[in-house]
Amino acid sequence: MEIGLRGPCNVFGHPSDQTLDLLNKELSKWDNNNQKVTKIVFGHFPTSFIAGTEDGKRPEELFGRHNILAYICGHLHYQFGKKLFKYHMLNDGKEFWEWELGDWKENRVARILAIDNGHASFLDLDLLGMKELDTGHELLESKDFILITYPLDAQKMQRQGYALNGSVNDFVRALVFTQREVTSAKAVVYDFPCCPENPSEEFMLEQLSVDVDNTYYFAAPLNLSGYYGTSRNRFLLKVVAFDSSGKQIESDLRLFSSDGCIEKLRWSWSEYFCMDFVLEALYPLFLRAAFFMLLGFLIAPKLYVFFVLKKGLTFGPSQKKKSPSTWNDINEVIAYIENASTTTWLMELILVLYLMFMPWFWGSIFGDSYPLGSMSVRGWSVNNLSSLGLKQGLGVPDVMVIVLPFLYHILLPLFVFIYALHAERAFVCIHMRNDKHRKSMEADKSVEPYSCKVCARWSRKALLFICLGVLCLHAQVDTFVAIVIIIFHRYLFFPSECLLFRRSSKMSPQQLVCNEF
């Protein structure tokens, strides 16, 4: 972006064409190198939280063009899950992995990444109970762990370059991080789920090196072709190291593949939503859907009354398929909703149209000494100090964190509750009109009144209680509070009684009214 904005514009990354050109230049430095180079890109935002450039370019295309191994990102801080990994397969067959990092500040997560002959393996360490650790040296001294560098994890590997034969790939290799003196290590293969407890193969590993930080490197031959042709999600690998006192250090069980087939990650719904969708493309869809539903609430009853009840047209199932009384009751409810309150309907329509085309609020998005900017559903608009003119569409799709929660969590429930209250009142009036016992009480004043759950308006009280809950939940939004108070002013008091419909055989359902004391 040419200019920086205050929040919420830190939700999405906004690369420019110049930024991607600079990244392309950096990744192209090794194109003429005869040796194979493993390329790993580190960035802050996941690709699903990165907006396109002015020309519509996206970083995924650039990553695939340069055959990077992985894109390591952050930003989400384990807020939506711990398996925020995505395998990218582009249309031209290029591939790369996207691995989101946990955060050290709040969750105390550290990642150990190893490159083994062009293949990447990593291990995430959860050190939440060790917040006093501040340096990498203290981290290595605090915990013993093993990182298997080969064979690769079947859930985090690439298809390309995964060879079955060769002296390099037919090995088990592992790094052991510990302050103990490791004397030996072994690899254990389990046939899962046939014999999950009894190992199908077990062999010792040879120590190849050890550095000054007591990081041990073990390896041993493994005939991967012996596992070829079997189910790729069948075999698990574990490495166990022994220190001088006989204590064990075990690695996590690793699902490995011998034929280069990737095992699909099992995401939760939040992980799937955050990683598998480009949120920039979803914002226009959710925005149009919200306004379509809001306008549908306002226009549908009037269209039904005009075309069906007044013009006599029918849509869908014929009225003969339903009993006349049931169909008339439905028409009466719709007619009452349409004629309930013209003032309320106009206020709702003006509100929706204003939110669609006008600014929502104004603020100093650059600083107190800069001109005010306005935010609408199309983004921020602000005068540019460097040149004459108005900058529009800034901060898109970041504004979705304000626009969509307001539309879906406040305005849509508000409209639903308004029409539910209208429908409940019409239903009570129809019930009281058709109640034979009520009619007998009207004729005979000596009969003691009886208790009726429908006439007691318990459903209405429940709806109002839910409305109050929504009001309390969103009380921090001043505009919403004002709108709710105005629209629900006539519903704050329970009517004592609802008179019967004054019905005539010549009256149409839309002419029926229900009066209150």
Low-confidence stretches: 313-323, 478-517
Head-to-tail CA distance between termini: 61 Å
Total domain units: 3
The biggest sheet amounts to: 8 strands, antiparallel
Spatial extent as radius of gyration: 33 Å
Number of strands: 18
User: Can you write the helix and strand succession as a string?
Assistant: HEHEEEHEEHEEEEEEEEHHHHEEEEHHHH
Q: What is the overall shape?
A: elongated
Q: Structural class given helices, strands, pairing?
A: alpha+beta
Mean pLDDT: 77
Counting copies of identical and different chains, the oligomeric state is: single chain
Helical proportion?
Answer: 25-40%
How many helical elements? 12
Tell me the fraction of residues in β-strands, as a range: 15-25%
Detail the topology: elements first, then pairings:
Layout: H1 17-27, E1 40-42, H2 59-65, E2 70-73, E3 85-89, E4 95-100, H3 104-107, E5 109-116, E6 119-126, H4 136-142, E7 145-150, E8 171-177, E9 182-191, E10 195-210, E11 215-221, E12 235-243, E13 248-250, E14 254-255, H5 269-276, H6 279-310, H7 324-339, H8 342-357, E15 361-363, E16 373-376, E17 379-383, E18 390-394, H9 400-434, H10 436-443, H11 458-473, H12 478-487
Parallel strand pairs: 1-2, 2-4
Antiparallel strand pairs: 3-4, 5-6, 7-8, 8-11, 9-10, 9-12, 10-11, 12-13, 12-14, 15-16, 16-17, 17-18
Helix pairs in contact: 6-7, 6-8, 6-9, 7-9, 9-11
